[in-house]
Amino acid sequence: MPSLSDQMSDFAPNKRIWVLDRGHGVDTPGKRSPDGSLREWEFNHDVRKRLAAYLDINQIPYIFTVTDEKDMSLRERTNIENKLAEMGYQTCFLSIHANAFGSGEWNDARGIETYSYPKARESKSMSKIFLNYLIKETGLLDRGAKEADFHVLRETKGNAVLTENGFMTNREEAELLKSDEFREKVARAHARAICKIEGIGFTDKKQDEGKPMMDWKTEAIQWLLDQKIITDPKWLEKKDEDVPMWAVAIMLRRVMEGMKNEQ
Questions:
Q1: Does domain 4-198 have CATH number 3.40.630.40?
Q2: What is the residue extent of each domain of the chain?
Q3: Burial class (CB in 10 A: 0-12, 13-18, 19+), 180
Q4: What does pTM read for this prediction?
Q5: What are 138-189's pLDDT values in tens digits?
């Protein structure tokens, strides 16, 4: 799984960074199907991992808010996006979820809906694009592109969209949410929407006309080394490993200090 440090250095101010949030932690209370056979974390985490693979293929930069199974506060999540926005990068916070209705019992609520913050016009437009591709890809009920005062939508300085991809409290949709086929459809729909927003053609091919795709992770780490934000070349061998948040914090601090020194 890509780590935050693997991705953060290749960010150019003229290229949007997608901040991928997988909602809840593995032990977040209540976030599961009525029979306990599905935890929302399992779905969110898997879809985000599949989505990241598509973004790698299409060379679209992204970071993860959380890289392990633990939960993270809403403020910590949005702070990651806000740090990038403060540094001058275009950003979009994308939070991926499975829905639920009622007080823990099976019911008939079903379908897909997306959310943006009220009066956030660009985010609203993005939300509609995500909904369109999700409905086309999955065939589930269209519940609409809605507005909500959620923290992850309200407290982000860049754009923000939250997707709800079927109901854990609906027996039929719960089974879909557990299936590899459905998760792949949801991930591909998100990727197609992102490519549409970025104005590029979507591909699910790892090579184009027989030529390997550019390894932007390696380029990103090399940039960190060139800028002396990190100094150990062994980072190049760890590009697909997770790193602790303190290491990411150190790199962000060095970047910010460098920007201050240039002023």
A1: yes
A2: 4-198
A3: exposed
A4: 0.75
A5: 999 999 999 999 999 999 999 999 999 999 999 999 999 999 999 999 999 9
